[in-house]
Specification:
CATH topology: Urease, subunit A
Structural class: alpha+beta
CATH class: Alpha Beta
Largest sheet: 4 strands, antiparallel
CATH architecture: 2-Layer Sandwich
Radius of gyration: 15 Å
Oligomer: single chain
Strand order of the largest sheet: 2-1-3-4
Number of domains: 1
């Protein structure tokens, strides 16, 4: 079973979104992830819902691999840096937290804050320019 809560605080606006799939419908989540990732890459639709699906998919996979919270956060930050549109969505975000309960694993809480230096990473394309 997948149950993930996303708590997002942008300026003075707070929003909670939820993803929930039972074991027999997890293939639907995989399909949603592929659609969301494709739409982000092709810049067709870039919104909070796509960000939540992409993050949720990575969180589920990392928890099932028994990755520690810091590794999951680092992997999400790397994923953010691959897509400028995601970084752009996060620029006004003050807090972003994910509470995930996956299968029988203990609940994991990932918190990002605008005070974190790696919260909004530099896009990979810009990193290359900085190196030269």
């Amino acid at each position: 079973m997948i149950q993930i809560y996303f708590n997002i605080e942008i300026n003075n606006f707070k929003q909670t979104k939820k993803i929930q799939f039972c074991k027999s419908h997890e293939k639907d989540f995989d399909i949603l992830y592929k659609i969301a990732k494709d739409s982000i890459i092709q810049r067709k639709k870039q919104g909070l819902d796509q960000l939540i699906i992409v993050c949720g998919f990575h969180v589920v996979n990392e928890i099932r691999k028994k990755s520690p919270v810091e590794k999951i956060k680092n992997n999400l930050t790397k994923e953010f840096s691959r897509h400028y549109s995601i970084i752009h969505m996060l620029k006004d975000t003050k807090k972003f937290s994910i509470e995930a309960k996956i299968d029988d694993f203990p609940k994991k809480i990932l918190s990002f804050s605008s005070k974190d230096k790696d919260f909004i990473p530099i896009p990979i394309e810009q990193q290359i320019w900085k190196l030269t």
